[in-house]
Each structure stands twice: as structure tokens, then as C-alpha cells.
Specification:
This protein has 449 residues and is of the alpha/beta class. It has 2 domains: 132 residues, Aspartate Aminotransferase, domain 1; 259 residues, Type I PLP-dependent aspartate aminotransferase-like (Major domain) (Aspartate Aminotransferase, domain 2, 3-Layer(aba) Sandwich), CATH 3.40.640. It is globular and about 60 Å long. It starts with 7 loop residues before the first helix and ends with a helix. 42% of the residues are buried. Bound molecules: pyridoxal-5'-phosphate. The site of pyridoxal-5'-phosphate (PLP) has 14 residues, from helix 7. Pyridoxal-5'-phosphate binds next to helix 7.
């Protein structure tokens, strides 16, 4: 006998209470639990979600009037603070003008202006901007672009991808394939494309991994990496020098370099893009998250002229057959332009430096705590492992930490036992101090359990 749940309308019929009345009596969190399925959330143990009704600067406000400092910029996207009036106004004006148009055969001002602005920031070696919808699609596009680059030129054997251990590049199938095998991908392992995973580069291993690249060069289309910080894999940081050397080795071996800057882009690591701390340039860059200031979904894959030229041919089969309904959505492009204008108008790079300096000061205090292991900083990100339980994503310490921090008015969401903060750049010094004090208070409590 199946132990299934009866459809809601049958249950209501039995009770003879009209569905509309019942639904009216529910608060937002109850209705959410009835109808919505949340990402990366264990359904059975899921607590009631917090209904957020408003955001302002670095604060989020719930329906009960509580406020929370958003110490992780709402999954690393919100760089200028919530509901920024400048971005909101620009989106509003654009919505009254042109909200959406097919991007094949048509173009529009926000898409062109944004492409021009991005190329200005990326530097002259970048040539074209390809739009998509989010971080996963931006890496998916990059992988397809690299594979087809070789196919278009008759090098059909070059179809292998190299990626870093502990990498994360998104949740669509191509993006999952180039992400290290983990609890996120376990159900799909047999279906994923085979990828060569190498250690992230260090001065100690660079000659070993260079050898691996040289050995596989004939069959390898591209390497994909998160420059300087591997985010979801545990805020793991590697140095710019070794990564530069790796890119050089790839170039010598005709392996296309894809820098996934979905998380590291737009100031996160201290420079506008993380690759600007390297001495070598990647061929393809993936952007999303902070691209629109965290207001709207948009993905960008930028490439150099060499990559683009492989798609310019009389042969129609060499077309890049990829696109999404909302490619270059005018509202999202407008938000991205506004976000980049805020960088210029509000001295955002200075604010990033202030957060970096503050990180450098507080790490002295944080690293003295006996539960703090491997403390590290890159730009606006501070991370360490909480020395409690197993070092893994499913460590319950994450939920415990998040709950205790929320009770204290701060939103933090460790990745398993990897603690980190990554605040919006508009955050005040008092708010930063509050995040640090709450972190230490919780570590003290956890240490006594
Ligand atoms: C480096 C990196 N690439 C790609 C993605 C996927 O982005 P999205 O969640 O927008 O699909 C993420 C998301 O966290 C990321 O950190």
C-alpha cells in the first residue's frame, strides 16, 4: 500500500472548508512550505523559511520586523546593498521603455552599452560579450564555446576539459561536469562528462600539474578555474603567481583558459576582476552574480578575438547555436550598467579596500580562537574552518551557526564547517564589527558544547 499524501483539494473537501479561506489564514512561511521547493535545502529538516519583506543597504527585514545584516551578500550577489535607489530607478525607467525583445536579429541600447563598458573594464584583449541568464549558463556557454572552437577548426580530438579539484561552476549538466565530484553531483556521476581534475596551483605543485597538462594537451580543449578563490568548494584560496604560471603552460600547450569569475568578479578579491592580479590573461571569462549589483539574473561570457574568429565562417555549421529566451534582457543589462556606474560614482573600490583592511585587522583576533583553523583572506572575503566535527559540506555546524547568527541579527551561512563572510561593499564599520562580534560569540558557545 502506498503511503502517499492526498492532494490538498481532496483533504479540504473532506473538511468542507473552502480552500481560499484556509489559504487566507496562512502566513507567508506556511504558504511557502505548502507550495515552494527551495534550492540546496534538505526538505525533511527544513525550518520555517524567514519571510523577507524588505531590504535596505546591508540589511534585510523580515515580516515580524526583525533585521539581519546580510554578511554573505545574499549568495554573493548583492554588492552595493539591497534596493539601491539608483539601480531601482534605472530599472523602472527601462521597464517603461523596453522590457524584453528577442536578441537574434535585434539589439538594444542597454546590451550594447553594457558590452562596451565590460570590454573597457576587461581590457583590450577581450573582444566579444555573449549574454546568457546566470552563472551556470555563463560557464555552460564558455565550455561549449571552447569545445566548438576546436571543432570548427577540424581538431575534433580536442574535447577534454581540465578543472580544479574542489571546483564549483554551477548546476546545469555541463557546469556540473566540470565541477569536482561532490555531494552536489553524486546522483548524476555516471552521466557527467569525464573531466581531468588537477590540484589548484601552488609553487610546490606547479611542475607536476604542468606535466599533466602537457601530457593531455593533444586531447584537451580547455581548462576552467575560479581564479584566486574557489567559492562553493570551501572558499579555498590559491596564489596569483602559481595561477599565472599555469595559464602560461596552458597557452604553450594550446589549451584554452576559462576564468570563471562568477563569484570573484566585480571587486570581491580586491581588484575589479580577480584575473587582474595575474600576469597572464585568460581567453574566456564568465561573469554573473555581482554583474547586475545582485538585482537581476544575467550571465556574460566574454572571449578574446582568437576564440571569436573561429566562429566567423561562410560555413553555417560553424555558427554558435546557443541562446536563451531572455538573452540580454534589457532590464538586466540596465541594472548591470547602473551597477558599474555606482562603481564609478561612489568610489566603491575604496570601500572594498576598507573592508580588506578591516579583514586584515580582525583576522588577528579571530585566529586566536581555538576553533579557528586555517584562517585566510582574499579581498572582501574572510574564511576559516570551524574545528568541530567532520570537514564536509553536510556538517550540521552550518545550520547551528546560521540559526544562532540569525538570533543575533546577522545572516551567515557556513559551507559545512567552512565559515566565511562576504559582505556588500556599502556595509558600515559598525555593521562589520557586529558580524565579527557575533561570530566570536557563537564560536565561544560552540566551543563549550
Ligand atoms: C564560481 C561559480 N560559478 C558558477 C556558479 C553558478 O552560478 P548560478 O548560481 O548563478 O547558476 C557559481 C554559484 O555559486 C559560482 O560560485
Amino acid at each position: 500500500m502506498h503511503n502517499y499524501i492526498k492532494p490538498l483539494h481532496l483533504e479540504l473537501k473532506k473538511l468542507e472548508i473552502p480552500q481560499t479561506i484556509l489559504l487566507c489564514r496562512m502566513n507567508l512561511a506556511e504558504k511557502d512550505k505548502k507550495f515552494v521547493w527551495h534550492p540546496f535545502t534538505h526538505q525533511k529538516s527544513m525550518a520555517d523559511p524567514i519571510a523577507i519583506v524588505k531590504g535596505k543597504g546591508s540589511l534585510l527585514f523580515d515580516e515580524k520586523g526583525n533585521s539581519y545584516i546580510d554578511a554573505i551578500s545574499s549568495w554573493w550577489v548583492n554588492i552595493h546593498g539591497h534596493a539601491h535607489p539608483y539601480i531601482a530607478e534605472k530599472i523602472y525607467q527601462q521597464a517603461l521603455t523596453l522590457e524584453q525583445v528577442i536578441f537574434a536579429g535585434f539589439t538594444h541600447e542597454p546590451a550594447v552599452t553594457l558590452a562596451e563598458k565590460l570590454i573597457e573594464h576587461l581590457g583590450s584583449s577581450f573582444h566579444k560579450i555573449f549574454y546568457s541568464d546566470n552563472g551556470s549558463t555563463s560557464t555552460e556557454v564558455a565550455i561549449k564555446m571552447a569545445l566548438q572552437y576546436w571543432w570548427n577548426q577540424g581538431f575534433a580530438k580536442k574535447k577534454r576539459i581540465i578543472a580544479f579539484k574542489n571546483s564549483y561552476h554551477g548546476d546545469t549538466f555541463g557546469a556540473m561536469s566540470v565541477s569536482d565530484r561532490s555531494v552536489f553531483t553524486m546522483a548524476f556521476h555516471e552521466l557527467l562528462v569525464e573531466v581531468i581534475f588537477i590540484d589548484a596551483p601552488t609553487s610546490a605543485n606547479i611542475s607536476t600539474i604542468s606535466q599533466i597538462i602537457a601530457e593531455h594537451a593533444g586531447e584537451t580543449a580547455a581548462i576552467i578555474f575560479e581564479p584566486l578563490v574557489q567559492g562553493a568548494g570551501g572558499m579555498l584560496m590559491h596564489d596569483a603567481e602559481a595561477l599565472s604560471e599555469l595559464i602560461l603552460v596552458c597557452k604553450k600547450n594550446s589549451v584554452i583558459c576559462i576564468a570563471d569569475e562568477v563569484m570573484t568578479g566585480f571587486g570581491r578579491t580586491g581588484t575589479f576582476f580577480a584575473f587582474q592580479q595575474l600576469t597572464e590573461q585568460p581567453d574566456i571569462i564568465c561573469l554573473s552574480k555581482g554583474l547586475t549589483g545582485g538585482t537581476m539574473a544575467l550571465g556574460v561570457t566574454a572571449c578574446n578575438e582568437n576564440i571569436y574568429e573561429a566562429f566567423v565562417s561562410d560555413d553555417k555549421l560553424k555558427t554558435f547555436f546557443h541562446g536563451h529566451s531572455f538573452t540580454a534582457n534589457p532590464l538586466a543589462c540596465t541594472a548591470a550598467i547602473a551597477s558599474m556606474e555606482i562603481f564609478e560614482n561612489e568610489n566603491v573600490i575604496d570601500k572594498i579596500k576598507q573592508i580588506e583592511n578591516w579583514n586584515n585587522q580582525v583576522i588577528e583576533e579571530i585566529q586566536k580562537h581555538r576553533l579557528v583553523k586555517n584562517p585566510r583572506i582574499c579581498g572582501t572575503i574572510l574564511a576559516f574552518e570551524i574545528d568541530k566535527g567532520k570537514n564536509e559540506y553536510l556538517n550540521d555546524i552550518s545550520t547551528v551557526f546560521t540559526t544562532m547568527a540569525l538570533e543575533r541579527g546577522v545572516y551567515l551561512r557556513p559551507l559545512g564547517n567552512t565559515f566565511y563572510w562576504m559582505p556588500p561593499y556599502c556595509i558600515s564599520e559598525e555593521e562589520l564589527d557586529r558580524i565579527k562580534n557575533v561570530t566570536i560569540e557563537i564560536l565561544n558557545k560552540i566551543a563549550t558544547v
